[in-house]
Design a protein that fits this description.
Organism (chain B): Eleusine coracana subsp. coracana
Number of strands of chain A: 2
Radius of gyration of chain A: 22 Å
Protein name (chain B): Transcription factor CBF/NF-Y/archaeal histone domain-containing protein
Number of helices of chain A: 5
Number of domains of chain A: 2
Strand content of chain B: under 5%
Keywords (chain B): Nucleus
Shape of chain B: elongated
Subcellular location (chain B): Nucleus
CATH topology of the largest domain in chain A: Histone, subunit A
Largest sheet of chain A: none
Helix content of chain A: 55-70%
CATH superfamily of the largest domain in chain A: Histone, subunit A
Number of helices of chain B: 5
GO molecular function, one term (chain B): DNA-binding transcription factor activity, RNA polymerase II-specific
Order of helices and strands of chain B: HHEHEHH
Oligomer: heterodimer
């Protein structure tokens, strides 16, 4: 498949690499989010009888890629103004808010906080790897017990 | 049955959430970020560095974004009394959502 003719910058750097999946406008480009993952996420939110055309999948693939680029550009500009070299998670959240994506900003602030907490736990456990790791098993058991209660269906 | 991920991490001796399964590959996200960060920073000639947590945030954010865009496209599909989501449905979803103004070029530059 030859390189696309249109001007969307999302496809601008189409490489000459071979078209592995053999079809579709986006071929096997690595400057887009992978279409298999995109398709899986789409399938998960649609009812079982829904079908998705290949073009629709590709369009959403491009939209999601543009979403990353759009927010990153704003976050990068903020870093530049504040003379910081590294884009971090907070910059992403602020960028989303500046771009009017408030509910994304709010959702990601909570997600980022939980992620950082879990990173701290992982780091602490790794630091303890030379010694015995003390886990209060009673707490763990109660968690699984309440999990089983919550899961009505398996 | 899926175990809550933070707890399974504790039992495995501290597997970081960073390496945990994500809906979208972190390396690819980082690549796309670098391209955009480079463009925006062209003025001061410096490519931005990207912290490890940023692609993790985007992996989840993109998941939510794809879910939202898909649901809106599906609403257009249903309005057309169809069961297959077409590209036009995605375009309709973008045009009908102020939040997605930045995507207007992406959905209208597609050629047939």
């Amino acid at each position: 498949m030859g390189s696309p003719q249109h001007v969307s910058h999302v496809r601008a750097s189409s490489s000459a690499s071979t078209d592995v999946d053999g079809g579709g406008l986006n071929g096997a480009q690595d400057n887009l989010l992978p279409i298999a993952n995109v398709g899986r996420i789409m399938k998960d939110v649609l009812p079982p009888q829904a079908k998705i055309s290949k073009h629709a999948k590709e369009t959403i693939q491009e939209c999601a890629t543009e979403f990353v680029g759009f927010v990153t550009g704003e976050a990068s500009e903020r870093c530049r103004q504040e003379r910081r070299k590294t884009i971090n998670g907070d910059d992403i959240c602020h960028a989303m808010r500046n771009l009017g994506l408030d509910h994304y900003a709010d959702a990601m602030r909570g997600y980022l906080r939980r992620y950082r907490e879990s990173e701290e736990v992982a780091a602490a456990l790794n630091n303890n790897s030379g010694r015995e790791i003390q886990i209060d098993v009673r707490d763990e058991l109660s968690i699984f017990r309440s999990n089983e209660q919550r899961q009505g269906r398996n | 049955m899926r175990q809550a991920r933070p707890y399974s991490g504790m039992f495995c001796g501290g597997v970081s959430a960073r390496t945990g399964p994500h809906a979208l590959p972190l390396a690819r996200i980082k690549k796309i970020m670098k391209r955009s960060a480079g463009e925006a920073a062209a003025g001061d000639g410096g490519a931005r560095m990207i912290s490890g947590e940023a692609p993790v945030v985007f992996s989840k954010a993109c998941e939510l974004f794809i879910a939202e865009l898909t649901r809106r496209a599906w609403a257009a599909t249903l309005e057309g009394k169809r069961r297959t989501v077409h590209r036009e449905d995605v375009a309709d979803a973008v045009r009908n959502t102020d939040l997605f103004d930045f995507l207007v070029d992406v959905v209208t530059n597609d050629n047939d």
